[in-house]
Amino acid sequence: MALKIKFHGLLKEPLPSGNFRYRVRVEGNKNKRIALSIDPDHKMFVEHYLAARRGIKLTVESEPIETSLRGSVAWLTYKHETWLEQQVAAGAASALTLKKRRGLLEKLRADCGEYNMAIPQSHVVKLRDEMAQTPASADSMVGAIRSVYKWAIARGILDVNPAIGVGNIDRGKGGATPWTLDDLTKYRNHHPKGSNAHLCLTLFMFTACRISDARWLGRTNEFEREGIRGIGWQPAKRGSAYVEIPMLPPLFKATRAVKVQGKSYLLTDKGIQFKTPDALGQRFRKWCDAAGLPNRSSHGIRKAAGHLLAQQGCSQYQIMTIHGHTQAQTSEIYTKGVERWKMASEAMMRLEGMDW
C-alpha cells in the first residue's frame, strides 16, 4: 500500500527487492503519476518533486529550462539565453553582452519566473520603479526585457512586447563623463611614462578604441603605408567599421616604454593579457582612483578624443573614421578605402602637436 509522506501528492511505494520508489501525483490529474529518479535525501529533490507536480519528469542532469514551467517567464528567458550562447559561440554576439544579459535575467526570474510569459506592461514598469535607486540598472533591465520579447516575437512565441514604450528613468547624466584636459594631465602626472597605467590612457586617447578592443590590441595590428606607421583593427562591437589610423609618436613611444612586452600592449601584473574587458575596466578604474579621478571611465576618454578632434577642426567624417562609426549609405562614400585612410591621417595629425 502506498504511503503518503511529507509532500502533498508524494507517494513512497515498497518494491519486492525491499527498496522503495517515489512517485508524485500530477496536480489536477490524480490518475497520472510521475516516478522520481532520486530520493528525498538528494539535494535536487525539491526541484524534481515540484516539476513532477506540474507533470514534468526530470533527470539528474536536467537543464534549468527543463525545471521551468513551459510558457513561464523563466522558460522564455532560459530559451533566450541558450540562443544568445549560440550566438556568442558563432561570433555573432559578444561574451560581455551575454554576461550582462544573464545577470539581468537572473533577477527577472527571481522576481517573476513562475509568471505567465505574457506579462503586462504594468509589471515591467513596476520592476523598473523598484530598481529606481540604481537608475542605470533599472533601465538596463527594461532594455533586457525588451530584447528578450523582441526575440520571442520574431520566432512566433509571443505577439506583444510589454517593454515597448517603457521609458528610461536615468535622465540628465549624458552617459560617461568626458575627460577634460585637466583630467588627462592629472592622470599622467600620477602615472609616469613606462607604466601600464600611462600606456593604457595613451592607447585610449590616441586610438579612441573601446575597452573590448584595447585589451587585445598589440604589435600584430601595426602596419606601414606610404612611410607612415599605422594601426588597424576590426572593432569587436557588432556593426563597427574597420579602423586604420596613423600611430602617432606618443602612442608608439608608450607601447615601447613598458618593461614587459607581450602579444598585447596592455598586460596584467603577471605579464599576461587581460581575460575580459571587465577585468581591464576594473584595473583602469583603480588607476583613475589612484590619480584622484573617481567616476572616470575609458568610454569617457573616447568621448574626450571626439571632442578634442572636433575642437581641432576635424570634420564629422574624420571623427567617424577614428571611432569606426558607420552612417547612412549616402555618407559612406567618404569613409571607405583610400579616402578613409586619408581623412584618418589628417584627423590624427591634428593631435600631433598636443602636449603629451
Could you describe the 3D structure shown?
This protein folds into 3 domains: 3-62, no CATH class; 73-154; 181-349, Intergrase catalytic core (hpI Integrase, Chain A, Orthogonal Bundle), CATH 1.10.443. Helix content is 46%, strand content 10%. The protein has 14 helices and 7 strands. The protein has helices at 45-53, 73-89, 95-112, 121-130, 135-154, 181-190, 196-207, 211-214, 249-257, 277-290, 298-311, 316-323, 329-332, 337-349, and strands at residues 3-4, 10-14, 20-26, 29-35, 222-225, 228-233, 243-246. The strands form 2 sheets. A 4-stranded antiparallel beta sheet has the order 1-2-3-4. Helix 4 runs antiparallel to helix 5 and helix 7 runs antiparallel to helix 9. The radius of gyration is 27 Å and the shape is elongated. The N and C termini lie far apart (86 Å).
Keywords:
4-stranded antiparallel β-sheet; single chain; alpha+beta; 3 domains; 14 helices; hpI Integrase, Chain A; 356 residues
